[in-house]
Amino acid sequence: MDNSKIKKILNSVKKGDLAVESALDTLKHLPYEDIGFAMIDHHRTLRQGIPEVIFAKGKTQKDVRAIAGAMLKTGGRLLITKATADVYKGVSSVCRKQKKKAKFYEKSGVITVAEAGKKAGKVAILCAGTSDIPVAEEALATLSFLGSKAELVSDVGVAGLHRLKQAGQTLKSARAVIVVAGMEGALPSVIGGMCDKPVIAVPTSTGYGTSLGGLTALFAMLNSCVPGIAVMNIDNGFGAAALAHKINMQTVNR
Fold first, then answer.
1. 201 secondary structure, DSSP code
2. Which residue, 113, 147, 171, sits at the end of a domain?
3. What is the DSSP secondary structure assignment for residue 166, as one 8-state letter?
4. Residue 84: per-residue pLDDT
5. Which of 49, 83, 106, 119 sits 20 to 30 Å CA-CA off 21?
6. How far apart are CA 227 and CA 190, in angstroms?
7. Is residue 217 one of the residues assigned to a domain?
8. Which residues lie closer than 8 Å to 42 by C-beta, 6 or more apart?
9. What pLDDT does 115 receive?
């Protein structure tokens, strides 16, 4: 539940269109709701500007459906990461009961319900190789859900730096830049040395043996000599998008 919904409830009470008891019933699960196996943080948008997100990996489909149903009932919106097609089918059935429609980003496993209609500012997402696209798509889907405009430029890794020319205008107009790369993880340093925007680096688990599941890229990004680069965990496109969105909104709301 966000500020606009609470204001709407309070205004309805003020006008006499909504009974106090009904308003209390709507707000009774703030700040959280205990559904037995999970404590759903309905208050998070008010505190952090970003709602609680369901990390589907490791959860049963039954648990995901239960959490999704409770979150939709109170907040009307939903973001799920690391989901499978089967999870999407289950969540879709929950959505239909509440007259909602879920959207599935197949490559990244992101599910969204009620993405923000109005997008503001701009975040650029640069993806080193096509094998890194699932992580980049997770960032793109998250930004779209939260309400930040985002543009993805893919396959511009360091093996062909001349391809970065097409990203020039995108970088210039962005308020934050997410750079997704596996292998040796060099692209964030290149981008950081080319632009004056905050750069958020995301190492991916893409690569051959000595990439060590993304550790090589992670260490390279952490050891970059370019100032102004923040580094996320391996394959964490969601975390990068959350940070980029907050940076973007700070600029938009000035």
1. E
2. 113
3. G
4. 95
5. 49
6. 12
7. yes
8. 1, 29, 30, 31, 32, 33, 52, 71, 74, 75
9. 84
